[in-house]
Amino acid sequence: MDLTWVVVAGAFLLASFVKGTTGMGFPLIATPMVALLVDIKTTYAILVVPNILMDVWQLSRGRLPWLLWRRLSWLLFTTAVGAWLGTRILISVPERFIYLALAAMILIFLVAKLSQLAAISRWGLYTGEILRWSAGLTAIALVAFWVGLRVQDRVPQATFARILHGLLLGMGLFFIYRGL
Questions:
Q1: Secondary structure class of 34 (helix, strand, coil)
Q2: CA–CA separation, 10 vs 4, rounded Å?
Q3: Using CA atoms, how far apart are residues 34 and 81, in angstroms rounded to an integer?
Q4: In terms of Cα–Cα distance, which of 51, 31, 10, 43 is closest to 174?
Q5: Can you tell me the distance from the alpha carbon of 100 to that of 82, in angstroms, rounded to the nearest whole number?
Q6: What DSSP character marks residue 12?
Q7: Residue 18 and residue 87: Cα distance in Å, rounded?
Q8: pLDDT tens digits for range 62-104
Q9: In the 8-state DSSP scheme, what is residue 23?
Q10: Could you write out the three-class secondary structure of 63-81?
Q11: pTM of the model
C-alpha cells in the first residue's frame, strides 16, 4: 500500500474523531489535510460519502430539528445549488484558484455534501480506484467517529475547540501560500 494512502487514512481518523467528539469538523479538517497529499478533485470525491454517513448517524442520535430545518430551508436549498455549481467549477478552473477557495472555505465553513455527491457523480470524478479508496476510508472514518462519540461527554469541548482553531488557521495559511 502506498504510504500516501496510509497518511490519508490518518487524516480521516483524526477528522472523524474530532467530528465524533465535537459534532463538527470532519470536512474542515479532512479536506485540507487530504489535499496536502492527493489532488484536490480526488480529495473531494473520497470525502463526501463518509461525511454524509456521519451526518446521518449524528442526526439519528437525537430528535430531528424540523422547525429549524423549515426556517433554514432557503439557506439549505441555495447551499445545495452552490455545491452543485462549485463542483462544476472544481473541474473547470486551475488548481491554484481551487487552493485559494479552499482556504476561504476553511474560514467560512460551507458544507453541502449530498449535493456535492450528486455533482461529483454527475461529472465523472469517481473512478473504480477512487470508489475503493473512498469505501475503505469511509470505514476508517466511521470507526474513528464512533470513538469520538464515545468520549464526547468526557472531554472538555473548549480544549478541542482550541486545537481545531489552531489546526484550521495553520492549514488556511498554508493554502493561501500554496495558491499564491
A1: helix
A2: 10
A3: 25
A4: 31
A5: 17
A6: H
A7: 25
A8: 766 677 667 777 877 888 898 889 888 888 988 888 778 777 6
A9: S
A10: CCCHHHHHHCHHHHHHHHH
A11: 0.56
CA-to-CA separations, 121 to 31, 130, 145, in angstroms, rounded: 18, 12, 25
Task: Give the type of residue at 169.
Answer: L
Residue 169 DSSP code: H
Distance CA 73, CA 146 (A): 29
Report how far residue 172's alpha carbon sits from residue 83's, in angstroms, rounded to the nearest whole number.
20
Distance CA 41, CA 142 (A): 22
Which candidate, 40, 33, 5, places its Cα nearest to that of 174? 33
Do the Cβ atoms of 45 and 110 come closer than 8 Å? no
Phi-psi sector, 174: left (phi>0), alpha (psi -120 to 50), beta: alpha
Q: 125, 31, 116, 123: which is closest to 80 by C-alpha?
A: 116
Query: Which sign does the torsion angle of CA 38, 105, 142, 50 carry?
Result: negative
For residues 52 and 34, the answer to whether their CB atoms sit within 8 Å is no
Q: Are 52 and 117 in contact (CB under 8 A)?
A: yes
pLDDT by residue (tens digit) across 13-32? 999 988 888 777 888 889 98
The one-letter amino acid code at 82 reads G
